[in-house]
User: Fold UDP-N-acetylmuramoyl-L-alanyl-D-glutamate--2,6-diaminopimelate ligase from Priestia veravalensis.
Amino acid sequence: MDLRKLLGHLHDFVQIPEKNIEITSIEMDSREVKPRALFICVNGYTVDGHDFAQTAVEKGAVAILAERPLDVDVPVILVKSTKRAMAVLADAFYGHPTQKLRLIGVTGTNGKTTITHLIEHMFKAQQKKTGLIGTIEIRIGDQSYDVKNTTPESLTLQKTFGQMVEEDVEVAMMEVSSHALDMGRVHGCDFDVAVFTNLTQDHLDYHETMDDYRRAKGLLFAQLGNAYYSDKRPKFAILNADDKASEEYIRSTAATVITYGIDNESDIRAKNIKMTNGGTTFTLVTPMESVEVTMQLVGKFSVYNVLAATAACLVSDMPLSVIVEEITKLQGVSGRFELVNENQEFTVIVDYAHTPDSLENVLQTVKQFATNNIYTIVGCGGDRDRTKRPIMANIAASYSTEAILTSDNPRSEDPEAILHDMEQGIKTDNFVTIVDRAEAIKFAVSKAQKDDVIVIAGKGHETYQIVGNQVLDFDDREVARKMIRERNL
Ligand SMILES: CC(=O)N[C@H]1[C@@H](OP(=O)(O)OP(=O)(O)OC[C@H]2O[C@@H](n3ccc(=O)[nH]c3=O)[C@H](O)[C@@H]2O)O[C@H](CO)[C@@H](O)[C@@H]1O[C@H](C)C(=O)N[C@@H](C)C(=O)N[C@H](CCC(=O)O)C(=O)O
Ligand SMILES: Nc1ncnc2c1ncn2[C@@H]1O[C@H](COP(=O)(O)OP(=O)(O)OP(=O)(O)O)[C@@H](O)[C@H]1O
Ligand SMILES: N[C@H](CCC[C@H](N)C(=O)O)C(=O)O
Ligand SMILES: [Mg+2]
Assistant:
């Protein structure tokens, strides 16, 4: 591609090179640079990409996009923000892929992975080719790819959308993290539908205040229907009427607003929610009609997730009757309220609750059906929001017979210090601290009696434990199975 033509997409006061420079790829990592690449220098959190410009040139980069002048033998194009420019250039380089498929973005503190998977299920059931980007994986049709971030940076993102378009994906759903919105990773994405789940405490290490965090999530709705995107397809903002932040997002979006909720008036609403042995039933009230719904998923939070997914499908022209039929078939998502079954007499639930609100939701749900003791194994991530530690520990102890505090990806922090932070939140003595997560699981399994429930929270689908710089194999489900089998011997 002609670099001069590509730079034209920046609509910026950019110095365009005098002669054509043919580029065949764009890279932000010098280690990935191939001949004829455009190398983009990004000043990161650990290193500054500008320091790798010379290496990139040695590996064949024919031009550099940077924020400051550099002494290299290829043209250096200067922009104010390379991250912002990268999003625009990536979108153009891969042929504006998000304008060629239906794109549904989901943001909010909890429920993003679950909702994107529920929507994927609905469209797949209609024989539509789908694409999915999120915490667990990237999936194109049935092919899955590993991910490093919930929302990848713009280059990977647009490349992935490009591949989706090539593979005839019709509908793509993606999780949009607040980090991604704040860092402009999704700046080049033309969303058709944006869904808001909820806003509760998390990531205060990054966003510093809840106001900042709320504003970052709001960028998705402000971006929706923005004139930057050329197509005239109708845009929809799907907002949770029971979450106060929605009031702000309603004001900031140019899209059509559809609300969903349980407690407050909303377009799509669930009434008469009842937990049953096999799941949940409720009346789904829509502006068109009301229908009785039966599903296998449990908990009020699951009803919210199903309402959000239903709204996203309805505005994508899926008939309500089809949606309701599929809700009945919905299975849980990997590591979300996932049961570990080795024919033991007690229940073991592995769940990805790693925020105060999600932990409380899960334990409230467990409390509704538990007839005996509840043991909750929980930890808090290192190098992450410290203020949630005592709160989560307190929630675990409040809802459980005994809370077992343990490690969850301590990363660069001292695991004992994280656990000490957690302990400060508990005013009772119904807890133990066991640093080693496998030992913590073993402890709960050895204690559990008939009809007890063990909740193993925080890691869900994760198959690792990050200690220092090491990524060690660890899967709560595998470990729980092993401990149950050993106990049975
Ligand atoms: C704080 C943060 O978001 N960091 C992201 C950032 O890493 P970084 O700023 O440390 O990058 P860096 O290592 O300093 O490198 C700077 C630049 O130099 C380049 N470089 C580096 C080395 C080299 O030899 N050559 C070279 O060119 C790099 O490619 C990069 O362009 O850019 C990386 C590449 O895109 C991301 O993977 C990384 O996410 C890290 C892993 C992370 O943990 N991010 C979290 C906070 C995050 O984004 N989380 C949200 C989800 C949260 C949730 O849903 O709960 C997410 O969307 O994943
Ligand atoms: N609507 C919801 N409200 C509150 N808690 C929820 C909701 N949906 C799921 N949860 C809880 O949050 C946990 C994480 O759910 P999920 O993975 O869908 O969220 P996420 O937003 O994708 O999280 P992440 O930010 O880590 O990607 C679940 O295991 C469950 O405990
Ligand atoms: N996306 C979240 C996941 C947290 C999962 C938990 N297991 C932890 O490591 O804290 C984060 O990176 O903050
Ligand atoms: Mg997720």
